[in-house]
Request: fold
Amino acid sequence: MGWGDEIVAAGQAQRLYDADPATRIAIVDQQGFARWHDIWDHNPILARPSDVARGEVVRKIRNGPNCRPYIVYPFSKESGWTFDKSFRCADHMARIYLTADEIARGTLARAHHGPYVLIEPFTKHDNFRWPMERWQQLVAACPDLTFVQHIHAESPLVLGAFSEAATFREACGLLTGADAYVRSESGMCHAAAALGVPQVTIFGGCMDPEVMGGYPLQTVLAEGPPCGAWLPCNHCEKVMERLTVGRVIDALRGVLRVRKRNGQAA
Reply:
């Protein structure tokens, strides 16, 4: 999951800090060494490796490559993931501290495009991929909505959506200006949760939504027990096929209605 893993790690640290703010938290790797990630920049409760090296008294959270709390180890690409159901990401709500320039990406996008729904179809995992033609159909079927796609070098462009080139943190800024986010399960879905943005998350049949989802303001689209397959999987492909454009539109309209009921612009 990459960036999403690090958002979850920040959420673990936040929960520990909220229970007792006596000391800051250091996130450590499998060997117990303090580490840092860009998504933690400006987070006041987290201690950097240099702070630990200087002797700051900290509490430690072990979360990093080969020691993610939601995975049962060992695993391989051939075996796929087994999920540790004792851990729920939604119990560990992170905070992301964006810069003024990053937040301005959302403010400027909203000023330029008006109210918008943020999307991005790209995923590096085959089993997380909602078919590209479905994204095109989603945009075409909702002419009353404005769609903005945050893109990078590998993004397939969705016709009918405005595109905004963005790094991960800049995409978080675009999230802050959006009425809702639609995406297959990814690190940006954890970012949307941390930033309080309503979202429709297309889980499909691979990842476990009970472990990886369940956030406030998140509507999950999934079917059946998750298989956890890492390699391309016929089961996951068939589940994604059953998650129709109509189902995604219904879910999106639902989160937008809730937003409007809560008195937020839409």
Notes: The beta strands are 24-28, 58-62, 117-119, 147-151, 162-165, 180-184, 199-204, 218-222. The chain has a mean pLDDT of 96. The two ends are 30 Å apart (CA to CA). The first strand starts at residue 24 and ends at 28.
